[in-house]
Write a structure and sequence with these properties.
The complex is a heterodimer of chains A (114) and B (110). With 114 residues, chain A is an all-beta fold. Chain A has strands at 4-5, 10-14, 19-25, 32-38, 45-51, 56-59, 62-67, 72-77, 86-93, 102-104, 108-113. By secondary structure, chain B is mainly β. Helix content of chain B is 0%, strand content 52%. Chain B has no helices and eleven strands. In chain B, strand 4 (31-37) and strand 5 form a beta hairpin. The mean pLDDT of chain B is 93. Classes of the chains: A mainly beta (114), B mainly beta (110). Chain A binds chain B through residues 6, 9, 32, 34, 36, 41-46, 49, 89, 91, 95, 100-107, and chain B through 4, 6, 30-31, 33, 35, 40-45, 48, 50, 56, 58, 88, 90, 92, 94, 96-104, 106.
Amino acid sequence: DQQVKQNSPSLSVQEGRISILNCDYTNSMFDYFLWYKKYPAEGPTFLISISSIKDKNEDGRFTVFLNKSAKHLSLHIVPSQPGDSAVYFCAASELTGGGNKLTFGTGTQLKVEL
Amino acid sequence: DGGITQSPKYLFRKEGQNVTLSCEQNLNHDAMYWYRQDPGQGLRLIYYSQIVNDFQKGDIAEGYSVSREKKESFPLTVTSAQKNPTAFYLCASRQHTEAFFGQGTRLTVV
C-alpha cells in the first residue's frame, strides 16, 4: 500500500519556466512533508519542508503548497534552471505522534531543457 | 565535518553470502534509517531506529537485519534470505524535521 504517491514519473520543462511537481498521500495522520532532490548514485538532498499547520512555504525559487483536504502537495520551481534536472522525491511523516517513520514517494524525474 | 558516512561506495558479493553495510553519523541524531532504491520504485524503507537499542521494521524488512548498539552507528546486514539484494542502499539520520542522507552503497550480488 503506497501511502505517498507521485503519479508523474517524468516531467520536461523549458529553462526559465515553472516546474510543478505533485505528490498525493493517503494517511491523514501525516503532519510533516518534505521534498528532496536526487542525482544518480548520490544520496538525496533536502530542499524544503512544510508542516500541516501551514499551506505554503517558500525558499528562494522553491515553494511548497499543501492542500490537506485533498491530501495533496506540490513543489513549484520558478524559474527552472538546467541544474534542477534531477529526480525529486516527496516524503511524509507523523511528527506530532512521536513517530519517526519517514515514507517516500516513487519520485519524478525532472528535465529542464535549454 | 558533520555528516553521514556510508561505506563502501561499491560492494560486490557472491550469491548466498551475508554482507554488512556500514552507516555512521556524527550529527548526534536520535533516528536513523535504511532505504533501498530500485529503478522506478523510489525509496523503500527497510528498517529504522528511533533510539539506541531499538529499531522497527519498515516496508521491506524481509531478508535484512540491523543493530543499534551506539547512537552514531546503524549497520545493515543483507542476508542470503534476501531474494533480490542487488540495489542502491541509502542510510539517513534525523532529529525531528529533515533527514540527512549518506552517499549510498551500490551492492551487486553475482
